[in-house]
Design brief:
The protein is mainly alpha-helical. It is about 55% helix and about 10% strand. It has one domain (about 10-155): Orthogonal Bundle (Multidrug-efflux Transporter Regulator, Chain: A, Domain 2). The protein is built from 6 helices and 5 strands, in the order E-H-H-E-E-H-H-E-E-H-H. Strand 4 and strand 5 form a beta hairpin. The longest helix has 24 residues, at about 130-155. The chain is globular and about 45 Å long. Mean pLDDT is about 80; it is low at about 95-125.
Length: about 160
């Protein structure tokens, strides 16, 4: 099982290798094979990967190592996945980076809303964070949700 991705903005190639269970030379090779994978390069051609790229590498790793795709097959599957997500956004489907909002009368959300009394909760009247602090916390939660979605869809 792969370790959780820390809440950082940039990761070095060594860190990404450890997070994804792949050697750095493999990551450099995958950059040539998968056009979606474009880490930022700084002085000395040092690579810096962002969170979404780490998730993409994990998905590529899953396609190649766990599902048995060839490089070409994984490339096509990854393009297909990206296209499906684009189409969903274009069609106006409500999504959070691929996580669809649950609908229906008997959904988990309805059960949650029925079982939670926000008026009497521990948060009633509390000073909740606002501004940049709240935004940072929401970004962390969003990253965790995206990572969980990816883990669920890839069968980890």
């Amino acid at each position: 099982m792969l370790p959780p991705i820390p809440a950082k903005r940039y990761f070095t190639i060594g860190e990404v290798g450890d997070l994804c269970g792949v050697k750095p030379h493999v990551l450099r090779y995958w950059e040539q094979e998968f056009t979606q994978l474009r880490p930022m390069k700084r002085r000395g051609n040092r690579r810096y990967y962002q969170h979404h790229e780490v998730l993409m590498i994990r998905r590529i790793r899953d396609l190649l190592y766990d599902q048995g795709f060839t490089i070409s097959g994984a490339r096509n599957k990854l393009q297909e996945i990206v296209q499906v997500e684009r189409d969903k956004r274009r069609n106006g489907e409500v999504m959070l980076e691929g996580v669809e909002v649950l609908e229906g009368g008997d959904s988990v959300l309805d059960d949650f809303e029925d079982s939670t009394d926000f008026e009497e909760s521990e948060f009633a009247g509390a000073d909740l964070p606002t501004g940049s602090v709240a935004q940072q916390r929401l970004q962390l939660v969003r990253r965790e949700l995206v990572e969980l979605r990816d883990l669920l869809t890839t069968g980890f």
